Fold:
Amino acid sequence: MTDGPLAGRYALVTGATRGIGRATALALAEAGAHIIAIGRTSGALEELDDEIRQAGSNATLVPLDLKDGDGIDRLGGALYERFGHLDVFVGNAGVLGPMTPLAQIDPKEWEATLTVNLTANWRFIRSLDPLLRLSTAGRAVLVSSGAAHKARAYWGPYAVTKAAVEILARTWAAETENLSNLKVNLFNPGPTRTRMRAKAYPGEDPETLPAPEDVAQAILALCLPSFEETGKLYDFPMRKFREFRLPE
Ligand code: NAP
Structure:
């Protein structure tokens, strides 16, 4: 176990199999946290496990489809039994969803996008809030997108979910703002070199974009016990630490 700023702490990351979530899980592990890694792709979770061990930490692998709301509920109970509390929750998993005019979206695709990007995050709040309250320094970060603030043709389902995630996180922050030990914030990575970005912009040269590892360092900063803000949205690049509180 490393002696980093998260040594002895438990951190749950959704979408830990690739992209920003995987890089965040590794950054948190390098800071000393035990990682609870969530995703559907078991092989990718096992590869992550190897890298976390090499970084001197440990992981609990949870192959889970975020459409399984009951599974998210059960996870909270299982983590309580095993660890007694949770210190960090990074709600990162997401899908782009159909990039189709609103009038032509298949209802099943609409539903699936809302379930993974929005409802699963609420189910995690429901499942994990009691565990985070038991931490000495509970930190939650929900991953949003610039799409939450733009109405662009064909981005409807994705943008709707990200706008909703922002009010979800801000509501949770308002409900917990009297707790000195629990902070809830939002993070917008901006364009990042991942599979999702390549799917949205197939003609773009990925090498022109920041790597998930760079973005992950910014998410790590929001997860540290020393980070005291709550109810805010942070835009990458964090080296500028441009932050703003959304209009009330
Ligand atoms: P990515 O590379 O496509 O990774 C998405 C992750 O979500 C994967 O680990 C995937 O795991 C997981 N996931 C998707 N559906 C799931 C399901 N049904 N159940 C469980 N896990 C599921 O995407 P990314 O770019 O890293 O995106 C991470 C977050 O950043 C997302 O919330 C995205 O909206 C946001 N974001 C990204 C960018 C960008 O430019 N990349 C910009 C703004 C915001 P499995 O497939 O193994 O289940």
Remarks:
- Residues 107-133 form the longest helix (27 residues).
